Calreticulin
Amino acid sequence: GIAVTNQQLPLGSRAQLLVFFKCLTLDSQSAKHFRNSVHGVRSSVQHFLEMWSSVIFAAFLTLQLSSATIYFKDYFDNCEWEQNWVQSKYANKEYGKFECTAGKFFGDADEDKGLKTTQDAHFYAISRKFEPFSNEGKDLVVQFTVKHEQNIDCGGGYLKLFDCGLDQPTLHGESPYKIMFGPDICGPGTKKVHVIFNYKGQNLLINKDIKCKDDVYTHIYRLVLKPDNTYKVYIDGEVVEKGDLETDWNFLAPKKIKDPNAKKPEDWDDRAKIPDPNDKKPEDWDQPEYIPDPAATKPEDWDDEMDGEWEPPQINNPAFKGEWKPKEIDNPDYKGAWVHPEIDNPDYVPDDKLYNMKEICAVGLDLWQVKAGTIFDNILLGDSEEEADAEAAKIMERGKEEKKVKERMDEEEKKASEAAEEAKKDAEVDKEEDDKEEDEEEKDEKEDDKEKHEEL
């Protein structure tokens, strides 16, 4: 008595029920063969679905990346940068020169080529324009790499983004920009990541301190602005700071201000402690701070007529207690610290588009370096963190080889230095032995001359 219709069971259960009824009509051997066949079909279907789920996910990820917009990209692999980048000639100043190179150590000789500063104690100012864009309603992703292979002591390593008003031949430190982002190092006191926005003509610095990398390897810096007015800063793929634009920069006037009409009531007592009115100063409290030394005696050769009246020297009085103050007790009228009441700031105007750079069409390197040798590379402006992640993964993979190469170089330099030091010591020993032999020869010659002289 099984009274179940197909409509009452899900598809999987109906299939299992059909298998059950089929098995009832077969002998044991045939039923076993039938069940094995069904199990094989189910395994094949499951494998098929798993395979296609992976394919579909990969296709989705590819579609997501293919829909990403790259506004600007320059990786300097072909070293044809001088065709597109413009060197500033502002005020006939002699700006520092760049060269295209992968540096002294690298992971890939071609892909790690970038623009390297070459002259110590110079300003640098170059820029490149591209098709203007706005990030309204979309993420803005700014990513580039910095390699201070010279072990920088003082100098900038940041990028600037400009609108189309930039006059490239006159680019200089006071040229208006939209965003300034990247590391800045000067001595042990300054090792920070700048994130500066120009808002209504004012350059606004972040209210937080973001530490930058200060070693000699390639590091990836990324800034992300989102339409919900939030931001993230990455170094080498790791989030080092994030938050809200309105909170972490002074874009807007404060939402609240102190009520200008509010004043602390005159009878408001904010003294937690008060002098005990019942405490009295002891009668023997007042004692002089210094007293004559009772152990002192007048010198025997003291002449009162010549030296004046003798007075013993002063010493600290052990009975001196200083100024008396009554002890303090809890103030029974204490009302706590008075808090100035706040009101809504009439000058506060919200802005839900703080993130929006209405027009960006140029990128520039406008900085000062005491010790040159920094390599800038892998500049990417877009709207996709996934695209930036994919590029960063390639860079970091090459960075592993870069580090290995540097470690081998350091080891070889160490061995060469040790060998040179050993050779220097050997040379000093040889010289000492030679000098000793010369001294002995000179001594023998003098003795021979002496003997000859005595014979004569």
